[in-house]
Model the fold of this input.
Amino acid sequence: MSKKLNKELGLFDVFAISTGAMFSSGFFLLPGIASHYTGASVFIAYMLAGVLILPTMFSIAEISTALPRSGGAYFFLDRSLGPLFGTIGGLGTYFALMLKTAFAIIGIGAYAALFWEVPTKLVAIIATLFFMALNLVGAKKTSAFQKIFVVFLLIILISFIVDGIYSIFFQSTISKEALNTQFTPFLSDGLGGLFTSAGFVFVSYLGLTQIASVAEEIKNPERNIPLGMVLSLVVTGLIYGVGVFIMVALIDPATFADELAPAAVAASKIYSWLPENTGVILMSIAALAAFASTGNAGLLSASRYPFAMGRDKLMPAILSKIWGKGTPAIAILFTTIFIILFILLLSEEGIVKLASTFQLLIFIFINFSVIVFRKSKIESYDPGYQSPLYPFMQIVGIIISFLLIVYLGWMPILFTTGIILLAVIWYHFHSRGKVKREGAIFHWFALLGQYQYDELENELMTIVKEKGLREGDPFDETVINSRISILKQQSSLNQILDKVTDYFQTELQYNKKTIKERFIHSLDEDSVIALPGVLFFHVKDKNVMHPSIYSVVSKVVISDVSPFKNPEPFSPIHICCFMINSDENPKQQLRMLSRMVDIMERPGFVQEIIKMDSHRAMKEYMLQNERFISIKLLNGTAQSAMVGLQLKEVQLPKDVLVALIERDNKTFAPNGSTLLQEDDILTIIGEEKSISKLFKSYISNNI
Done:
């Protein structure tokens, strides 16, 4: 079965998964407990934790846009530090996520028990099975449910904050003296207590990391992942900081530290404009929504860890199976069983510290991974978002995570050590003999003679192909402006090289011999891409200002391809394509190269191209997307109104361009004064919405 997940999640889905995973115990349970360590300044600890996670958030965003794959931290660590670290990160994060998810789902049962006499754990198990059913029908359905949770939750929390701020500062019910009393002592245990509290509530922000585990299912990950994470952190940080401030201001300091439902208690002291106890009911419903959203998002993201590890042979392969709805069904069922076991067998005490400690260790590894990937100089490591202030940001993230681990104490450190030992044992006895790959760290030390795993570059190149072009890449323009020669008589590869170098000599003002030597050298290095019926030459040069493509299409087989080291599997050759790009932008070259290869790998590519006699038709076949349209100026059609007009006189949307005109079987690039004639075929490129509008105006109306 297919092992590729559907890309169904947009920006709001990213925001909802991340935000929904953060508003549960962090807001409705932990504030009072966290105040044990720092007193009234606990609201500052929440905001401090939000600031301290920034370096790691930037690192996660960078690697997620470079490697949008299920498995999150596992996949990052496996491909950067090797499969042993991948196993440690995968199993550890998987258990931490499941524990956090089980804790949140138990919260559903606990709050439900406030309204009905029902067994807490039975309700939790029923809720788990419900979330499992949602996850089995697809990430989009899961995310739709998640968005309902998050929107409802944000409405109640914002109303809580607005009403709370109004009650504290604009009503006479709370005097300044009373307010001062509420915030005394402010730092009960100095700065050390503040940092301990920040480490304790750090788990409240771990929803940010859940985005990485579903990155493979996110549309336009290079935009939606970093933007969704930043929006989620800003919204969550503000609500945490202001919301906990309100709790501190309204709840008796003597009881706040022991209060397990501080949000509900604070709500009972505001909402004076609503009937009695309505505020408590609203906040309890919000808590149920929050725990449900965390449980739902937690099951979604946690199940992607065994799926990704099964796909990479670090866990049984059955976990990587995808069923008809495009979801990893076995991994979801496996994760559900574990969560139910945790609900039945474990108590809630200490889970927060345990989850935080292991996540902080993973954060150290992730920040180091960014440094490893950058130092490895692997060209196909092509993040759509780059962390600012590299490597300072990563070093700060490592130091912050280490210090917070120290503040959290020995018990969670011992737990983390146990998980690491379990992962090492599992890798040694189950996975070691099945996995041949190594991480990017071997590329970093390649100059020292260490082993370098070349397949990693191939895997990253595959990811680059799947991600496609980036906004601003001049692929369409390069194809439109490319040169094509159609040969009907047999030619040798050497003759084609002469023809191509003549063109590039004029185009680039290079010495012909130098250009030809560059292409021949690429043959000698075996860096030419060979596909069935196609040879694709690609070189970079510092003097090239913009990418340029020359394609030679031969109706008969190209002879004498002997300079190519291994032509037999790809013969007969009909197409030779040559691309030159600037060496100042190797990542762009790689994306355009991968796009060309993707086109050339279409079924029947060679047969389709050699049947064509029109340059315009060939270029349109190369474009083949929603950003261009081909219009023929025929009498009796809507577009016939263009005949006799200069191109600049034609009313077209501002964001489109007439790139090519075919007239009498000849193709040329027009200018504003070009006079349009009957039977002209116009190739128009531009933004999708405008192209769609032109299609409705000039094509669909004629069908």
In short: The domain at 468-619 is CATH 3.40.930.10 (Mannitol-specific EII; Chain A). The chain has a mean pLDDT of 81. The radius of gyration is 30 Å. The first strand starts at residue 483 and ends at 487.
